[in-house]
Amino acid sequence: MEFNVLIGGEAGQGMFSVELELTEILSRLGYRFFATKNYMSRIRGGHNFHMVRVADRPVHALSGRPWDMVIAMDSGEAERRHRPSLGESGVFIGADRVGQIEAEAKGSFQDVTATSTILVGLILAFIGANPAAVREAATDETVRSALAKGRDFAARWELAARMPIAPNKVDHCKLDGNQALALGALLGGCQFVAGYPMTPATSILHYFATVAAEIPVHFEQAEDEIAALNMALGASYAGLRSMVATSGGGFALMTEAVSLAGMTETPIVIIDAQRPGPATGLPTRTEQGDLNFVLHAGHGEFPRVIFAPGSIEEAIALARRAFDVADRWQVPVFILTDQYLADSVQIMEGRVPTKMLRRDYPVFEAGYRRYEITDDGVSPLTYPGLSEARVEVDSDEHTEDGKITEDLDLRVRMVEKRLRKLEGLHRETVMPSRFGDQKAKTILISWGSNRLIVNEAVEALQDEGIAVASVHFGQVWPLTPKMARGLSRKRLICIENNATGQFAQLLRRELGLKVAQRILKYNGECFTVAELVEQVKKIIS
Amino acid sequence: MLKQDIAWCPGCGDFPIRSTLEKVLNELPIPGQDIVLTSGIGQAAKMPHYLPYSYFNGLHGRSLPLAVGVKLARPDLTVIAVSGDGCQYGEGGNHFIHTIRRRLDITILACDNKVYALTKGQSSPTTDQEMKNALDPAGNLNLPFNPLAVAILVGAPFVARTFAGNPQHMESVLREAILFKGTSVVDILQPCVSFNKVNTYPWYRERVYTLEEPLKERLKAIRTAQEWGDRIPIGIFWRDEQFVCREGKDTFRKPVTEDAVARLLNTKCIMMR
Prior knowledge:
Chain A is an alpha/beta fold and 541 residues long. In chain A, 38% of the residues lie in helices and 21% in strands. In chain A, helix 7 (177-187) packs parallel to helix 12 (312-329).
């Protein structure tokens, strides 16, 4: 059993409040749900909509099925756009009913913003939430009273318990993709973040700005993204695990400093929350168009690692791991996320890991050489001010003690030292995660945020008797032969949110894997399960 | 002096700046291991290579954000950004303005030879109008950038100019700048013997005069900073004793605890994207 609701209207009409309040109380009541949003780059007007899916089993994607309820907060646009996708027995709550609720909000609470809470009460009644539990979950008396008004409206309009869904009482936590990355970064020991606001990465910065009041981390808003990454490299050099977060356009400004990190071997973690480009593109929509860009960003040759988490759990785990990898190998580590994952609120079942990673602060004597040539390419790393050991770091080609040099034999040894780290990085790649019956001839390949949409499509196809399985790459660079085990004899369908199939090309180039078909979407919206099922069936038949 | 192959031309103004800086840093009441130099790219930006301190020699124009990062991460360190006029005022012009606004205890030094020397003599932001060079064959059309007036206007609490041809003056100004608690900006007039045939040692010697003490009012300081030509003032133009310096956070070797992270798990879903 599941319930799919869409709340649409003009920016500023309170749809986001409905989503925030609904997901908050659903989480407290122990419901399993998935919520995401589709919004314009404006503060007022236009058309935005928020989608929430509540189910009696874990859900981590938009179903793409007809809506069970559409709530139109505006006077026509939401109805025009979304009523056609309302299910046969679906409920439409339009201007007339929203008007009555608004009148109630103004009358009973002298506050039109209580409308969103009343709507939440109505939705909770629709899915048969226990009134006593709802009362208990309410944060204060006004909210309690508004939620009860919502239940009254549901009763009056004969909507109560129309689609009863049972909550699940296991320990769980509600997180959006950016919160998960920020939490993972904290667990990885991140203590310094610099950034310049850019959708859809801003909430990562906001998270750090917020928690900095309570814990020993620092957030600095930079004058531009060039400064942001240079500040983070300065902080990393001085001894803090550091990070920047931006989107493609901001990352474009950072690229010279990516190269600086490569040359100076300064550990750094860089999050690119992708949105559709080129240039300003669609600022608030989703895309996976920056893979090639991030892979090749920065002049010159140096090793790097790129993670692309596909779930909340993986976002936490890979963000945490990124700091460890960056530190141990002294390379830039990238995390590719996107607006879809950033803006989707999901339930993580079980306990959130809180085990912290720590770094060492080794002390050396005078004569310490920051760029000592070693077998694995990793030189001893320490920080200024701990002893007489000087930490000398240079963007020019340099000697082992960090002095500018044009000794070309040394140049060759330094290039080889830096690139030797790749051997170690190859040994510790994060293996792709596999889902479904791997004996199936057809494998759906994905990377980054599409993972759980694809997995649900695999389940749906299996239910229809179609044998498919999926393989998801949470690490997209470096790619090693063992990651491709068993894939060369399969029919591969690569699913990506971009127009050119960048990952399919990379699989061909790096692993010799030939992708038979590609399912690409680049209108700025995420895939839905139903849409993927449809497209895969079309390809297979 | 370290055994090092120095890349500067014989007679370069960077030599006296280097030896004065070494003397000042050596005599500071601060252990040498707590000093970090940052620099960008250019002839002056090679300075840290020739001094016995920790350094991060980064990219062109980026000495200041590096310095900000180091200082924010490690308030215990004394941070000095040293680069040329092209680096600090041209490629790094935006950082120059905004680093001052951050109110951190950082010293910003610009070895100002009024020319791009490492790339062989093109106009820099401080090149005088009508000066001819390969990329400005008809003479520089741009107005020269006034780093001192801008720094005072933006809010730097310590703004000075000194002259590479006057080591004694340089020594006292650099010492005061580094010891000043707050962002200090020092523009150092530095003759380029290879590419600037106008602003030479004799040219400066005929013109520079020493300010006895900082100006009492900000606007007067800005006005004095605009003096250029037959008479060129050197000294401390502006020194704001009321300035409140921003203190960095004590984070180094103070990791976040697991308990703190557990408490933060309920941090609200944030509306801003």
